Amino acid sequence: MRIALVILHADPARGGAERYTVDLAAALARRGHEVSLLTMFGDPPPPPGVRLVEQLPRARYRATRATLYRMFLEALDAHLDAARYDLVHAMLPVRRCDVYHPHAGIAAAAAQKWNIHFNPRRKLMARVERKLLTEEPAPITIALSQYVKRSIREHYPLPDERLATLFNAVDLQRFQPAPRPGHDYVNGLFIGQDFERKGLMEALVAASMLKEPRLKVTVVGKRRLGFRPPPDAAAQVSFAGEVGDPRPFYADADFFVLPTKHDPCSLVVLEALAMGLPVISTVFNGATEIMIDGVHGYVLKDPTDVDALADAMRKLLDSDRRRAMSQACLELRSKLSYEHHLDELLNIYDRAVAARRN
User: How far apart, in Å, are the Cα atoms of 336 and each of 21, 29, 96?
Assistant: First the structure.
C-alpha cells in the first residue's frame, strides 16, 4: 500500500505525535508498505525505507506560524493533486485525508479556550478541522482514548463507521525493562515539551514541599526562556534538554511524573509503564485508562492539586512500594504491544480505502 503520513515536523526529538509518526513510518515500511512522510520542512533524515517529502523551503521560516500552516495546506493540496497514494493519514487538521488522527486532541476543543485569540494558527486549525469533519466524505477519525472519544462526540456527530478508538502503543523491543538504578537518591522523571500544560511547575512545587533531600527530578524537554523552577526546588531539579532517545532516562529513573492538564494519550506514560516505572499522572490523560490507581502508580483527579501530587511522590519514596508497583507495570506490557496496535491501524486503513472506493 502507498501510504502518506502527514505531520508538520517529522522530528522524533519533539516527542509525542512527531515521534509516533516517525516510528509508525518505520514500522509500516518494515511490513512492506511504501511510506512517505509529508512534512513542512526538511527534518532529520527519515527511517530506512521511508521517503521524506518537504512541502515548504526553509527560506520561508520568517513567516508567522499561522501563515506557515496556511502555506503548508496549499503545498500539501498541490502535492496530493500530483502524487497518488492509496491512503493519506494526517496527524493534524488538513483539507483532505482518509484518516484523521488528532494526537493533541480535537482542535475544536482548543478553539473554546479563552486564549485562542492569541493563537491564530489554532483558530485556523479549528476551522480546517470543522470543514474536514462536517463535509462529505469525512475521514475516519481516530481517538487515542475514551477521553478523546468523548471530546470528539461533543463537537462532531460522526457516525460509528467514521470513528475509531486506537490506544497508543509501545515498541516493546526498544523499550525493554532495565535493572533499577542503584543510586542513593530517588529520581522522578518528567518528559514533555509544553511545561505549562504538562504540569512541570506543579511537579516541582510538590517536590519542594516534601523537603526531602533524597528526591530528585530530571526534566527532559526543551527549556523555554523565562522558565524558572521554584527557588526551593532548584537544588532538586536537573534539565536534560531535548533528546532523541529517552530510553536511558527511563532506565535511570525510579518513577515517572506527568501531572498534565490535558493529554489525549501520552506516549511517554506508556513507555514508562512498559519499562516498569510507576507513574503519577491525571484523569486528564487518556493513557491512565490502562492504569489502576494505587497499583501502577497514582492517577490524580486535579492536576493543580499540589498537595495530592506531593503525597503521591512521598509514597513513591518507599522502595518496597515502588518495587511492587514496578512489577505490576511490567505485567501491562502485553496490552501495550506495538504489533497489535499496528494490526488494528491497518484494519482502519482497509476500512478507509473501502469507504473511498464506495
Answer: 17, 21, 30
CATH superfamily of 186-336: Glycogen Phosphorylase B; (3.40.50.2000)
> Can you name the residues that pair with 165 across neighbouring β-strands?
143
Report domain 2-169+337-357's class: alpha beta
192 in Cβ contact with 258 (< 8 Å):
yes
DSSP single-letter state for residue 27: H
Tell me the C-alpha to C-alpha distance, in Å, between residue 335 and each of 80, 122, 183, 265, 329.
36, 34, 31, 14, 11
Instruction: Round to whole Å and give the CA distance between 76 and 298.
Output: 42
pLDDT in tens, 277-288: 999 999 999 999
Q: CATH 3.40.50.2000 occupies which residues in the chain?
A: 2-169+337-357, 186-336
pLDDT digits (tens, 9 = 90+) for 163-212: 999 998 898 999 999 888 888 999 999 999 899 999 999 999 999 999 99
Please provide the average confidence, as pLDDT, over all residues in the chain.
92
Quick one: cell of 69? 500552516
Contact predicate 36/50, CB 8 Å: yes
| Backbone angles phi and psi of 61, in degrees to 5 | -60, -25
d(CA 214, CA 62): 46
Which stretches of the chain are assigned E, i.e. beta strand?
A: 2-6, 34-39, 50-54, 87-90, 99-100, 140-143, 163-165, 186-191, 215-220, 237-241, 255-257, 279-282, 297-300
Q: 40 or 301: whose pLDDT is higher?
A: 301
Output the nine-digit C-alpha cell for 63: 513567516
Residue 61 CA to residue 318 CA, distance in Å, equals 49
